[in-house]
Amino acid sequence: MSGAKAVREDRLWQRHADMAKLGGTPKGGVNRQALSREDSQARKLLASWAEARGFAVFTDAIGNLFVRREGQDADAPPVASGSHMDSQPTGGRFDGMYGVLAAFEALEALEDAGIKTRRPVIAVAWTNEEGSRFQPGAMGSAVFAGHYKLDDMLLVEDWNGVVLKDALAETLRAAPAPMRDGDPGFALGGYVEAHIEQGPRLESERTTIGVVTGIQGSRRFIVQAMGEEAHAGTTPRANRKDAFAAATRIAAAMYEATADADDTLRFTIGRVDVQPGSPNTVPGKASFTIDMRHPSNDVLEAHEKTLRDIVASRAAPCQAKIDRVTAVAPTDFDPKVIDLVRAKADALALSNMDMPSGAGHDAMHIARLCPAGMIFVPCERGVSHNEAENATPADLAAGARVLVAVLEELANR
Ligand code: GLV
Ligand code: MN
Ligand code: MN
Q1: How many angstroms is it from 98 CA to the middle of ligand 1?
Q2: How many CB atoms lie within 10 A of CB 170?
Q3: DSSP state of 379
Q4: What residue ranges define each of the domains in the chain, with the CATH number in brackets?
Q5: Which atom of ligand 1 lies at the shortest distance from residue 95's CA?
Q6: Which bound ligand lies closest to the C-alpha atom of 90?
Q7: pLDDT of residue 114
Q8: What's the average model confidence in pLDDT over 66-85?
Q9: Is-contact 362 138, C-beta < 8 A?
Q10: How far, in Å, CA of 7 to CA of 317, rounded?
Q11: Angstrom distance (rounded) from CA 406 to CA 179
Q12: pTM for the predicted model, two decimal places
């Protein structure tokens, strides 16, 4: 039996249902933010499934969780697949989790089919892909790839001042796994990540498999405006240094400056904080996050300059500053992996189309280490980062079949 034939749609779907209970919300989504209690529950569940199948489980210093199926050549760099188990605060059941469960299904299918591979095959759950609680996102894969320094990331604080190092220690206490010695990162022979598309193209074109060619570049910033707290009833406008008013002037100018004719540039202000947050005190501080994305690094660079000019020119009479939290250059996946994904989808008679990814994924960092690619499957109406996110058992299984076929081939190269 081939690995693809051994993929079990019912098992894969049930595993999604089991994971969806961890952090499940009344609206049918999940709130399983990075390094939370729910994240540790998901890690424990995955590890228990792995141990039941006799796969080795281990973690690293940033908490990436690896499940390893041994190869005939134990010293050959493994082939890996995976994604993330953390979610947005109002996230769906499939974003990230599908890539982890499809990778685990691939390991199980290889096992069930009795297929031996030369290289070991690893299923991985990368730590903190979403970056909604701890910034920056795609943190575990970025540390693995050497894009961010482990020590810097351990000091990052969430919005409530919880230090990542403490949250990670707590998570690993609740979901213990053998710790791999040394810095995160080891040689990989290839990486393929499965994910729901998170956009509407596959569904609207009635296509089952997205052969992902690359990922657009992204930058995140935080803008802070500093003014002066004052009495809301007594302070004339001319005397105010209203930090929120400055922040809104800056934000309005940014929305205008980032609107492009062909609607390619993505600009989002997703989190706003106003201090002291009292109805009758003029705000003394206001801050907001920016997420900006485009396929061209030059365009991102030019717009970053514009954002900086706006902050400098619109803040008066307040002070304001903009700090870059992260920059990830656009990713082009390996042409050989792209061709392999397409060939395996064709061989399985699955409709497919080449497409770039608008969303960020752990694969963008791992692609700097080894030949990498991605497989997309449709999601309902393209809705994601939303509790209503949905996908069909058949499409999820189809993506897993392509994945196992690709991994099998890469693991024998
Ligand atoms: C990942 O969730 C992203 O924001 O692209
Ligand atoms: Mn994701
Ligand atoms: Mn996401």
Answers
A1: 14
A2: 15
A3: -
A4: 9-216+330-411 (3.40.630.10), 217-328 (3.30.70.360)
A5: 2
A6: 3
A7: 98
A8: 98
A9: yes
A10: 63
A11: 29
A12: 0.95
